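Pasting as-is:
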Amino acid sequence: MTPHVAPDPEAGAAVKAADRAHVFHSWSAQELIDPLAVAGADGSYFWDYDGNRYLDFTSGLVFTNIGYQHPKVVAAIQEQAAKLTTFAPAFAIDVRSEAARLIAERTPGDLDKIFFTNGGAEAIENAIRMARVHTGRPKVLSAYRSYHGGTYTAINATGDPRRWGSDTGTAGVVRFWAPFLYRSPFYASTEAEECARALEHLESTIAFEGPATIAAIVLETIPGTAGIMTPPPGYLAGVREICDRHGIVFVLDEVMAGFGRTGKWFASEHYDVVPDLLTFAKGVNSGYVPLGGVAISAAIADTFATRPYPGGLTYSGHPLACAAAVATLTAMADEKIVEHAAHIGEDVLGPGLRELADRHASVGEVRGTGVFWALDLVRNKETREPLVPYNATGEANAPMAAFAAACKKGGLWPFVNMNRTHAVPACTITEAEAKEGLSILDDALSVADRHTV
């Protein structure tokens, strides 16, 4: 790995010691983790106190869409702090209004009202609350392969195993299978079959649950943590039609896929579908200050025209976060960052990852768009057996752990989840940086290949 700054192991040890003494980490058995002490970051890279620099193929948690320390956004936060650091959400504040305007300019259809939250989970919480009040119905449908956040309603709407520890079966959520041809639950052999059978399955689920009991269907436009499964043509349009027919609110979760990540401002643009509610966070200001929100259709906004909305947050539309959003969205437009993400995906990452799949026995499938890609790692390409079992831990997860260690040794920080590695760098990653990442992945996949049969 390439040293980036003068090493200072003593300072790093002090940071690590304070962390281990006092910081309680998410989703972790506290005594079994060993967090890296980070000294700094810039663009597509970050580095530790030993001077090791890493190419970040995770974008933090898929949120630093414009990279670390973009000077225009840093300056905007500084300027806003000098002008008005914070203010209560009930007032009209210039930077809050401008952030809402810029977001509404980019959202599809008539999603022109913006309710600000502190992050994606709160956005989902409030979108579901809006849908329930708007329809007067209690139930929510969501997909098994999904992640929607860690707060109560959001985690219960989630499909992946992080839900299990909090799921009491009382949240009014019913799950269904969304399409995923590579591991089809419908025994489909083509995208058209997968689409038709997935829609038929959803229709059946609604019929047996009772359409008049269902407030919302919540879907990630392109599921993120669950595997970056791009939906087959016609699926989201089919869900839109089903929702319209039954009076169900259609919620698209674009927390991870939004703001340039897929090579469009929002992933829904790839499918020409407009939801009733769209949730966002992460890329709206590259995660520089916590911010999320719900973009609301005219029909749902009208529900609360004379009826108070039963929800609110102390820091809704926080001025520092909104200033970061204004600067981020302006920089993305001025610097054509969304277009750049599309180019990197089409001309560098996509072809490069597919070449790796041809070369490595452990790569079963490559899927994605823009700077939003997943490699499905397998023990056997013919049987498609995952490289590690579902939700594997300990020794059962050793092949993926070895792969991740090889990435880090080579100077790449990987996004690893179950049997997949995701290539989700900043939208601003250069061609040279993307090729550097592909080269490191090439070497690390040779480690994964040792576990194939």
